[in-house]
Amino acid sequence: MNTLQLPASFNGPVPDPTATQQVSPLHAFSIMRRHRLAIALVTLGISVPAGIGIFSLRPYYNASSILIVGTHQAPFRDLQATVSSPEVDTVAVNSEVSILRSPAIARAVAKKLDLVNDPDFREALDHVPVSKRLVDAVSRMFVTPPVEPPMTADERLQAVSLLLDQWVTILNDGRSYIITITASTVNAATSARIANAYADVYLDFKRHMKISATWQANALLDEQIAPLRERLRKAEQAVQAFREKNGLIAAELERAPGANGSSNSADSGGTTVTDQQLIQMNRELITARGDLESRRARYTEVRNAIRNGSLDSIPDAVSSPLIQQLQAQEAQISSRAASLSQTVMDGNPDLQSVRAAAAQVRARIGAEVQRVANSAAKELSSAEARVAALSAEVDRLQGQVTAENEADVTLRQLQSEATAARTVYQDYLGRFAQTSTQAELQVAEADLISRAETPLGPYGPPRKQYMAIAILFALMMGAGSALVIERMRKGVRSTAELDAIPGLFALGLVPAFAGPLARQYASRERSAYLETVESIRSVLSFGHSRFRAKVVLVTSAEQAEGKTTFALSLAANTGRCGQRALVIDCDMRNPSAMRVMGAVSIMRNTHAPVSPLLAGLERDVLPGVDILTPEGMMHRGGGAMLLPEELGQILAQVGSQYDMILLDTPPALAFPDAAVLSRQTDGVVMVVKWGQTSAATLVQAMRTLHTYDARTLGAVLTQAPPHSLGEAEKHPFRIYSHYGLLPPT
To answer: Which family does it belong to (predicted)?
Structure first.
């Protein structure tokens, strides 16, 4: 016989068909329909208590006040060192939100509004949760709990601040400087009061924090001013003492650094008397030296003129009135002498007299020029003496200035220390004056944009949304419970699951029926059961060559899966078509074919020759159906199975008499009968009970058949409830219902 080679997956580890199986949406809806009662119960069990709890919630009211942080006041000049105004960024805004959420703010709000005595807060503090009441009730059954002392005022205040932390929401969206303070309580006016109190307390806290920082800076400056003043006094005294000790007396008043907008280190100590004297002497020495050179040039010029006899080159002689007068007389006398020399002889007394007068005038001019030369010589000598005296004085003053400059180095260091002390002292005085004025003008770097108003209506709870969520959650839990119930049932429930098992093909699905099998075939009316069995018989008789078979072995993986009933039904459908079928009960340990048929009138064919192998043949148990129970083999003892050789002899004897021969064998996982006898048949049909046989069990059964090289025609899903099937399997039954083949539900 031809055998079918199963997939190579049987050569490896056993696959888990359920591991890769995916549930389609249609199949999921089918599961929901099958378990709609469980879904309804779970949904009601969750949604009803949830609805009661939701509609028993007390309404609450939301009130919001809005702040903007980062608003800067106009600071005084140079105040950044004591009261800084940082740039506001995300970190700064988050810091302000954290301040608003701090327990200190909540405690201050509780004190300001006296919330400890507020009825709503007293009720919240005195409320005992149901869980705690249950725990206390259970505890009282075993022990007597100690009496709890009442809360102190401070503890109640702390408890109220904790409630405020739960009822107040501080929110910033992270993209702006806006902070929203929202209070949610059961009283509209209380919500508005709390939201506004939070804003007021926060602004007061920020303002007092800045004032405190200002006064702290003021106190620190005040502590530093006295030592700085003493330091400045000592530094100035040291400068003055060193100056007096070294004779460095300033000739002009000191100028305060910065008095005219600038400070020159060279002028920080003023100019000493010696400096001024040296400057003056230098100036006089330069003037004297210039005058000396001028007088020396004049003297040289006079001497050269006298030596050369050129009086006209002597400025003093030219400018002297006496010399000019004498020169005029000389010119007149010379003119008369010239005129006389032309008319008289040299010995003329008049001429001699005139020449004598001319010589006398020239002598007087020479004497006057000599006086001028002597005067220039005296002036030159006087200028030289003055220059020498001034040079000596300058040398003396330079020596004195050099000594003073050496002492001035130390003086400048002392003056620098005094200047630094004065600068720091004046700076601290300025800061002290600024902080003293600024302390009264501090404002918080935040503004209240809008105050919270009393809400006109409750903000929540959103009962409709909560109820919708509760119902949706209940439906999800119900659907989940249906899937869990479905998952807990490990049996195969669809032909698709059969097809997923290696080596199996779903030949069909057979519904469950009520009553004995004989009643199904006693009536001439058609039913869905008969139609489904007929569909499977048609596949085996007229289907693809892969499925066509005359001798069919019917088995199952486990017991009580309906293999005997299906084998008899397949034979009975063959008989209803006018053909003959034989069912061979091959279960030598527990033959059940005749027991399934119940009390049936059996007519034996006494005319037919009886072979020892056919001793247990019962003819026409059903129309066209014979049942063979090999009685001879059953008496061999030991529960031995029917041998393949014996089955071959039986088939050889009756094969030509029947159109279909069905072998009912024991379960394949328990006994090897089915696997051994399959070599004598055209193929094996595996019967699977709906919702009971697992996929893993079928895989093991297929492995057993594959071990004996059995040809598997396919599998049949039996005892399926028509109204619990999936969408794909339920569709044919809708058609059967339309034709009246299904009983009404």
So the answer is: Belongs to the CpsD/CapB family.
459: which DSSP letter? -
The type of residue at 48 is V
Q: Does position 79 have pLDDT exceeding 50, yes or no?
A: no
Place of tokens 């200190």: 104
The per-residue pLDDT for range 263-285, each reduced to its tens digit, is 444 444 456 677 788 888 888 88
Which residues are registered as beta bridge partners of 664?
554, 585
Question: What is d(CA 251, CA 233) in angstroms, rounded to the nearest whole number?
Answer: 22
Q: Give the CA distances from residue 297 to residues 112, 198, 368, in Å, rounded to whole numbers and listed in that order.
A: 105, 101, 20
Q: Supply the DSSP symbol for 345.
A: -
More confident residue, 559 or 483: 559
> How many C-beta atoms lie closer than 10 Å to residue 35's C-beta?
21
Which residues fall within 8 angstroms of residue 326, CB to CB, at 6 or more apart?
A: 361, 364, 365, 368
- pTM here is 0.47
* Model pLDDT for residues 460-495, shown as the tens digit of each residue: 888 889 899 999 999 999 888 888 877 776 788 888
> What element of type H or E holds 65?
strand 61-69
**Two tokens, residue 536:** 């499977």
343, pLDDT greater than 50: yes
HSE value, Cβ hemisphere, 13 Å, CA-based, for 695:
24
Report how far apart, in Å, the C-alpha atoms of 587 and of each of 576, 592, 641 are.
Answer: 26, 8, 7
User: Which residues does 620 contact at the CB level (< 8 Å), separation at least 6?
Assistant: 602, 603, 626
SS (H, E, C) 645-681: HHHHHHHHHHHHHCCEEEEECCCCCCCCHHHHHHHHC
| Average confidence (pLDDT) over 356-380 | 77
Nearest to 121 by CA among 57, 55, 194: 194
Q: In what order do the strands lie in the sheet with 446-450?
A: 168-171, 178-185, 61-69, 446-450
Residue 660 has pLDDT above 80, yes or no: yes
**Which residue is associated with the tokens 């709000």?**
109
Q: Which residues contact 115 (CB under 8 A, 6 or more apart)?
A: 109, 121, 160, 164, 194
Number of H helices, E strands in the chain: 23, 12
